[in-house]
Amino acid sequence: QLQLVESGGGLVQPGESLRLSCAASRFRLDYYAIGWFRQAPGKEREGLLCIRTTGVGLLYANSVKGRFTISRDNAKNTVYLQMNSVTVEDTGVYYCAASPNPSCTSNWSQYVDWGRGTQVTVSS
Fold it and tell me: How far is it, in rounded angstroms, from Cα 112 to Cα 124?
């Protein structure tokens, strides 16, 4: 197992930015496509973006288009989720997970090695 660990969550105000990290300590993340997901209160978990092993990012949620980006730093064995212009609707627990497909997949049930998540709360 990759033992992915998310970090960087917290309380932010609407319009601010936040960067989440997804790190692995035991295995190299550059061998895997990594997806970011979130679960808002009372809602199902949704896929946001995924980054291929090639470094190409894919957007899956139109609600974050133009505001969130995904990137990876293989030297740090970390995948990032940059969140800009956040809104209260971005509140939730954010997770990362590994895709069995190096090119990513929109079939969320196939993702494995889910982290425990990091809480993001957007409030004024």
Answer: 35
- Kindly list the distances between the CA atom of residue 39 and the CA atoms of 84, 90, 94, 116, in Å, as whole numbers in the listed order: 18, 9, 7, 12
Report CA-CA distances (Å) from 87 to 11, 42, 49. 12, 17, 17
Go through the chain and tell me how many residues it has.
124
Question: Minimal CA–CA distance to 80: which of 39, 113, 48?
Answer: 48
pLDDT of 2 strictly over 80? no
Cα–Cα dist 16/110, whole Å: 32
Q: Cβ-count burial of 32 within 10 angstroms (0-12 exposed, 13-18 middle, 19+ buried)?
A: buried
What are the tens digits of pLDDT across the range 36-70? 999 999 999 999 999 999 999 999 999 999 999 99
Q: 6: pLDDT confidence band, cut at 50, 70 and 90? A: very high
Q: For residue 74, report the phi and psi dihedrals to the nearest 5 degrees.
A: -65, -30
